[in-house]
């Protein structure tokens, strides 16, 4: 039995449902148009099911952060939602005022509206407990108008913010279908029923990678960890490889001296399970050159893993039962350096393994290569996925669990 309620636990007919989603999307820098609507597509099963079952749905969401260029109202999101729904999801440019309250009270069963960017509220992003958040105006004003709160915002589930955890303290609450699916797929990767389990970790940020790798190997969640991208460079440096000035300079910004010590220690303790690139691709006068890591000239940037590494990693991936990939292997914006990311994805999708990818850049790369639908599961999580990888609780999931026993009067 699940530790939280789902849409199956409630009779939804005629109910007013507050649906919190994560449709925070990458936007075009000049036009501010939505560039990738994947997160909107992924909440459609929940939204369609609620409407089909006769609920009156009010969508609550955020885009960007106040002060950032991509902090915009949600009218563009409403247009995409309406297109995907095949009927209008009306945008209401208000949250707690008369306009919003009147709009909520007048929704018909089977209809949806979307309110203003919830991060317009100055306290929305405060990190507080569900009880503390439940006392804020957002919750005290809106909760009395709703029967059920549904949270389908997996991508923001690592945030303990007002609209994400406050309503679970006062309303019957359920996880949406996306939240369920995400947790199930990640549960499957982390219980690793199908062995060997291969984790490919890359990307441009070194971040918490030592902690993540130490955990997944220590807990035997992964049998092999393949490290690529800037993170791969960082571990190569920890192993004593001289990467050359451009890459070393970049790493100084990413890695503290303590990180380097921690990476060295991890390689000493668990190095036999960690696979690093044997060769890498550098850029010389605009062209790709694949060179063994021991022979690197010192004036050129390392921008991808090399062909020999791709071949060896692909053999490990082909024999896997579970593959998890987060973070590109090289520069996915620059043509000859997309090879590593693309070929490792091809190896994963050609294997018989249960394959999961996540992280914004990895997912966009999969889309660009036409491989998106070839993976067993594509996660909408970025920061949420990182939190999950570290084994830390997700506040939104914890709040849903705490609300498990709160039911609607009718059921
Ligand atoms: C995200 O895209 O990371 C989520 O929507 C959460 O947004 P945030 O990182 O701005 O809190
Ligand atoms: Mg984020």
Tell me the number of helical segments per DSSP (H or I, 4 or more residues long): 17
Query: What number is the mean pLDDT?
Result: 96
The profile of the biggest β sheet is:
6 strands, parallel
Poorly predicted ranges: none
Structural class: alpha/beta
Helical content stands at 25-40%
Oligomer: single chain
Radius of gyration: 23 Å
The outline comes out as elongated
Extended strand count: 15
Bound molecules: 3-phosphoglyceric acid, magnesium ion
Strand content: 15-25%
Spatial strand order of the main sheet: 3-4-2-1-5-6
State the distance separating the first and last CA atoms. Answer: 18 Å
Would you spell out the secondary-structure blueprint of this structure?
Layout: E1 16-20, H1 38-42, H2 44-52, E2 56-60, H3 75-85, E3 89-92, H4 98-105, E4 112-115, H5 130-133, H6 137-142, E5 148-151, H7 162-165, E6 173-175, H8 177-191, E7 197-201, H9 209-218, E8 224-227, H10 229-238, H11 245-254, H12 257-270, E9 274-275, E10 279-284, E11 287-292, E12 302-305, H13 307-318, E13 322-326, H14 339-350, E14 354-358, H15 360-368, E15 377-378, H16 383-389, H17 395-402
Parallel strand pairs: 1-2, 1-5, 2-4, 3-4, 5-6, 7-8, 7-13, 8-9, 13-14, 14-15
Antiparallel strand pairs: 10-11, 10-12
Summarize the structure in words.
By secondary structure, the protein is an alpha/beta fold. It is built from 17 helices and 15 strands. The chain has helices spanning 38-42, 44-52, 75-85, 98-105, 130-133, 137-142, 162-165, 177-191, 209-218, 229-238, 245-254, 257-270, 307-318, 339-350, 360-368, 383-389, 395-402; strands spanning 16-20, 56-60, 89-92, 112-115, 148-151, 173-175, 197-201, 224-227, 274-275, 279-284, 287-292, 302-305, 322-326, 354-358, 377-378. The protein has a six-stranded parallel β-sheet with strand order 3-4-2-1-5-6, sandwiched between helices. Strands 9-8-7-13-14-15 form a six-stranded parallel β-sheet, sandwiched between helices. Helix 13 (307-318) packs parallel to helix 14. The longest helix is centred in the middle third of the chain and has 15 residues, at 177-191. The mean pLDDT is 96. Bound molecules: 3-phosphoglyceric acid and magnesium ion (MG). 3-phosphoglyceric acid (3PG) binds next to loops.
């Amino acid at each position: 039995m699940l530790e939280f309620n789902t849409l199956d636990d409630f009779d939804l007919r005629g109910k007013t449902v507050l649906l919190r989603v994560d449709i925070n999307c990458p936007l075009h820098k000049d036009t501010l148009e939505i560039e990738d609507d994947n997160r909107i597509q992924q909440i459609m099963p929940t939204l369609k099911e609620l409407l089909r079952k006769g609920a009156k749905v009010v969508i609550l969401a955020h885009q960007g952060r106040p002060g950032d260029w991509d902090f915009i109202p949600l009218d563009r999101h409403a247009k995409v939602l309406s297109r995907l729904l095949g009927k209008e999801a009306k945008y209401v440019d208000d949250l707690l005022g008369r306009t919003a309250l009147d709009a909520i009270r007048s929704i018909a069963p089977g209809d949806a509206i979307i309110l203003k960017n919830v991060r317009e509220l100055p306290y929305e992003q405060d990190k507080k407990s569900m009880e503390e958040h439940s006392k804020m105006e957002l919750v005290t004003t809106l909760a009395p108008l709703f029967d059920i709160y549904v949270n389908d915002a997996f991508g923001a589930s690592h945030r303990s913010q007002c609209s994400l955890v406050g309503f679970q303290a006062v309303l019957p609450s359920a996880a949406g279908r996306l939240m369920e699916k995400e947790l199930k797929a990640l549960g499957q990767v982390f219980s690793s029923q199908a062995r060997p389990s291969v984790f490919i970790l890359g990307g441009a940020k070194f971040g918490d990678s030592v902690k993540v790798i130490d955990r997944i190997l220590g807990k035997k969640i992964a049998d092999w960890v393949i490290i690529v991208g800037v993170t791969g460079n960082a571990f190569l440096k920890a192993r004593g490889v001289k990467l050359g000035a451009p890459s070393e300079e970049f790493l100084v910004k990413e890695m503290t001296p303590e990180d380097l010590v921690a990476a060295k220690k991890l390689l000493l303790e668990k190095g036999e399970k960690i696979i690093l690139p044997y060769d890498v691709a550098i850029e010389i006068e605009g062209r790709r050159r694949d060179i063994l890591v021991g022979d690197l000239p010192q004036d050129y940037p390392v921008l991808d893993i090399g062909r020999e590494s791709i071949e060896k990693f692909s053999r490990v991936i082909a024999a896997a039962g579970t593959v998890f990939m987060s973070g590109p292997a090289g520069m996915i914006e620059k043509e000859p350096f997309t090879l590593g990311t693309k070929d490792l994805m091809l190896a994963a999708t050609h294997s018989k393994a249960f394959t999961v990818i996540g992280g914004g850049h990895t997912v966009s790369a999969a889309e660009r290569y036409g491989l998106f639908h070839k993976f067993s599961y594509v996660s909408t999580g970025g920061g949420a996925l990182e939190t999950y990888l570290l084994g830390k609780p997700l506040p939104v999931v914890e709040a849903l669990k705490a609300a498990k026993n709160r039911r609607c009067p009718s059921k």
